[in-house]
Design goal:
About 30% of the residues lie in helices and about 20% in strands. It is of the alpha+beta class and about 250 residues long. The two termini are about 30 Å apart.
Amino acid sequence: MITHGLKRRTIYSAVITSLILSVSFWIAPVALAKYTPPKNPSKPKETGTNTTRGGSCEANSSARLTALVPFSHVGETISGHPTFTWFVPDRTSRPLQFRLFTRTGQPLYRTEMESQPGIMSVALPPNLPPLSIGQSYQWQVVLVCDRNIPSMNVVATAEIQVVQPAESLQTQLAAASTPQQRIDLYAKAGLWYDAIAEARKASETSQNQTPVLELLDSLANSEAEPLKDWSDRLRQIRAIEQQRQLPPPKP
């Protein structure tokens, strides 16, 4: 099964289905980063992460604009200037907006960029005041399908909570000598945003998406029981990104 609500099956989605099934039997060459949800996580203010409309500006897309975060609880960070990560299904570049609000809806930050297919990230600029420990915030990515018809835009929404880092974690992070060790420490501490940010950084340095794909797989596993539809969507994205890494077929 791919995402709930998909009614049309294309050759492309059939390939993705096959890839999703194969992911269950795929064994990584290194130990997977295991994301462990926080012990007492906050519940999302509304419905957690959601996507409006069909989730894409392209009518034949089987995937959806998706904030890459937990759905069953609010993802946490220890950073005052966190990194936000999402998946863009559209293969055509389009205007994209990132917006950050307080939990009550007060605007804090907004920036615009051009979308690119696959996983994208943006970090809160260091010249802005840091987010406050103990506070939750809402963020959005808006894919602009038609500048003249705002109602056509596709929006993905999620929440983030800033928490106080444990002293033991700070000591372990200071002693960590590799990106994978830092990813593992963040993931095991339930700090999703820090783990995925570190994985993105490692992937960009090595030109290899494996750290990010492993984390997505781990998050999908943790969400499988409470929210299977969300878990399936994450697995679909993981399969798409894994396929993207494969060398092009020989002519």
